[in-house]
C-alpha cells in the first residue's frame, strides 16, 4: 500500500488545487492520501470528492503551527473531524494570528528596502486566511530578490534575517487536544527539521505523549535517509506510531512528489495500523 499522509494544496501554501492534488496522487499510484494544509481544513471536502471519484482512499488532515519553548513545530492531525467546534475555534484563532504576522513581515521587509510585499504576497495566496512565508518567498523570487524560494528563506525569512518576525503559535497541548477532541490522532511532523539535540527531542516527545500525542513522522520528504533511521529509533524507543508523508507542495522546492518515498521500516507500527 502506498500511503502518503502529508501534503499541501492552494488552501495553504501548495500550488495545486485540492482536486488536482488528488488527481496527481492517483497518477502516482497513491492508495491513501491525507491532505494536511497548514491551519485550515477548507480544502478537505473537494479533495475528498475527487478521491471518491478516482478510487483513492482519503483521510481528513491538518498541520497545526505550534510554538514549543523557543521553537516553531508542526503537529499533523489525521482522521480529524473538520466540523468539530473545538478544532474549528482553535484553527480560526491560529489563522487570525497569521494575518497579523503577515503585516509585521511586510513592515520588516519595508525597513529592509522592499516595499509593498504584503500586497505582493497576497497575489500568490489561494486562501486569504492562510498567508504564509511561502507566499512572501514566491513574491520575492518573482520580483528578483533571490534565485529560488530556498534562497529567499535563507536571505530574508528565517530567524536573524530582515523579514523574520517572532510569532507565538498554538501551545503544544492545545494543538494536540483540538486534534483529539475532533477524533483525530496527533503526529509530530518532520522532527528532523527542528534542530533539537537528543535531550531536547526526548523532552519534546515526553511532553507530546503526556498531552495525548501518539505519532511521529519517520519517512518524510523533509528527512534524509539518515534521519529515517534516527527517527525510526525514537519511534521504537518511545512506542510512537510511525507516519509517512511527502510534504508535497507542488513546486520544485518539494523534495518528494506524492507517494514517491521509501516505505516505513517493517518493524514500526504504522499510524494506519487500525484504520
Ligand atoms: P509559515 O508557516 O508561514 O511560517 O511558513 C512555513 C512554510 O514555509 C513551511 O511549511 C514550508 O512550506 C516553507 N518553508 C519553511 N522553511 C523553508 C525553507 N528553508 N525553504 C523553503 N521553504 C521553507
Ligand atoms: Mn508549507
Ligand atoms: Mn511543516
Ligand atoms: Mn507540511
Description:
This protein has nine helices and eight strands. By secondary structure, the protein is an alpha/beta fold. The chain has a domain at 92-157: DNA polymerase, domain 1, CATH 1.10.150.650. Strands 1, 2, 3, 4, 5, 6, 7 and 8 form an eight-stranded mixed sheet that branches. The protein is globular. One manganese (II) ion (MN) binds at residues 6, 8, 63, 247.
Provide tags for this entry:
single chain; 275 residues; 40% helix; binds manganese (II) ion; binds adenosine monophosphate; DNA polymerase, domain 1
SSE ordering: EHEHEEHHHHEHEHEHE
| Number of discrete helical segments | 9
Approximate strand percentage: 15-25%
Indicate the CATH class of the domain at 92-157. Answer: Mainly Alpha
Shape: globular
What is this structure's SSE topology?
Blueprint: E1 3-4, H1 18-27, E2 32-35, H2 44-54, E3 57-68, E4 71-78, H3 85-111, H4 117-122, H5 133-142, H6 149-157, E5 170-171, H7 172-181, E6 185-188, H8 198-210, E7 215-220, H9 225-238, E8 241-245
Helix pairs in contact: 1-2, 3-7, 5-6
The protein binds adenosine monophosphate and manganese (II) ion (3 copies).
Amino acid at each position: 500500500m502506498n500511503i502518503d499522509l502529508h501534503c499541501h494544496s492552494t488552501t495553504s501554501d501548495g500550488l495545486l488545487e485540492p482536486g488536482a492534488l488528488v488527481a496527481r496522487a492517483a497518477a502516482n499510484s497513491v492508495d491513501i492520501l491525507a491532505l494536511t494544509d497548514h491551519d485550515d481544513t477548507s480544502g478537505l471536502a473537494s479533495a475528498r470528492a475527487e478521491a471518491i471519484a478516482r478510487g483513492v482512499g482519503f483521510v481528513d488532515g491538518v498541520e497545526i503551527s505550534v510554538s514549543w519553548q523557543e521553537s516553531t513545530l508542526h503537529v499533523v492531525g489525521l482522521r480529524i473531524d473538520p466540523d468539530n467546534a473545538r478544532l474549528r475555534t482553535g484553527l480560526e484563532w491560529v489563522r487570525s494570528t497569521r494575518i497579523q504576522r503577515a503585516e509585521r513581515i511586510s513592515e520588516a521587509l519595508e525597513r529592509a528596502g522592499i516595499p509593498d510585499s504584503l500586497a505582493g504576497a497576497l497575489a500568490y495566496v489561494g486562501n486569504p486566511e492562510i498567508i504564509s512565508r511561502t507566499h512572501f518567498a514566491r513574491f520575492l523570487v518573482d520580483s528578483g530578490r533571490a534565485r529560488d524560494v530556498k534562497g529567499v528563506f535563507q536571505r530574508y525569512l528565517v530567524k536573524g534575517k530582515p523579514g523574520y518576525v517572532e510569532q507565538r503559535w498554538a501551545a503544544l497541548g492545545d494543538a494536540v487536544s483540538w486534534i483529539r477532541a475532533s477524533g483525530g490522532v496527533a503526529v509530530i511532523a518532520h522532527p528532523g527539521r527542528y534542530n533539537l539535540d537528543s535531550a531536547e527531542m526526548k523532552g519534546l516527545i515526553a511532553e507530546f505523549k503526556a498531552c495525548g500525542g501518539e505519532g511521529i513522522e519517520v519517512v518524510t520528504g523533509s528527512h534524509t535517509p539518515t534521519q529515517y533511521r534516527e527517527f525510526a529509533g525514537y519511534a521504537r524507543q518511545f512506542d510512537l506510531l510511525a507516519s509517512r508523508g511527502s510534504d508535497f507542495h507542488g513546486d520544485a522546492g518539494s523534495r518528494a512528489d506524492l507517494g514517491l518515498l521509501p516505505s516505513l521500516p517493517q518493524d514500526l507500527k504504522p499510524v494506519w495500523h487500525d484504520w
